[in-house]
Amino acid sequence: MASLVARGAFILFEGVDRCGKTTQSTKLVEALKSSGVNAELWRYPDRTTSMGQMINSYLQSKTEMDDGAIHLLFAANRWEKRAAMEAKLAEGVTLVVDRYSYSGVAFTAAKGIPGLDLEWCKSPEVGLLRPDAVLYLNMPVEAAAARGGFGEERYETSDLQKAVRANFDKLREDWWTIVDATGTVDEVHAACRAVADDAVAKCVAGAPYARLWD
Ligand code: FDM
């Protein structure tokens, strides 16, 4: 039986590139810490592991890889951190995470490779820990691109980002929070903070863990 003990909350930020995930996740961790919540910022891909270094090299176009293989590597990069993530949460640490399985599915499926559809892309993610809250920073790709344009990495093009956004729309579930990311940094932060406080309170009260895609 899942134990109903106090634990940290798993709070996930998702959205297209340049929607503000990094700014908002950093700000949320600072705010949580300053109100006494033990919180850490995690991000995927985790480029520090050996699998993460292979992903990093692929994203920087230094190496080529089959689209199915890189998809599985992104998923494996979450599986290799799964036990550490669960241990942190069990210790009472709240994890604010910048991208996770939803990005994994949305990006690979956006490539339009025959066979690599949403269902195929989801399957290696099934069974990973499900976030307690998803903060989806909603922003049209044109508005994201207007923030100084996309960077140099693979996937940072308007066409791909539009397909990614359409996939996020298909992946959205009714328990996600859709945040209007076109507001000011402080407005977006206030909306995220309210959801995070609620998630932390529920986990302290003993919310059970859930798995993707149950
Ligand atoms: N990305 C990220 C994927 O394609 N699959 C994944 O599972 C994850 C977590 O990698 F283009 C893509 C999304 C983005 C890139 O970018 C990583 P950032 O800037 O480090 O978030």
TrEMBL record:
> Per the record, what is one GO cellular component?
nucleus
UniProt keywords (A-Z) are:
ATP-binding, Kinase, Nucleotide biosynthesis, Nucleotide-binding, Transferase
Q: What is this protein called?
A: Thymidylate kinase
Q: Which residues form the Thymidylate kinase-like domain?
A: 13-190
Superkingdom, taxonomy of origin: Eukaryota
User: Where do the TM regions start and end?
Assistant: none
What family does the Swiss-Prot or TrEMBL record give for this protein?
Answer: Belongs to the thymidylate kinase family.
> Which pathway?
Pyrimidine metabolism; dTTP biosynthesis
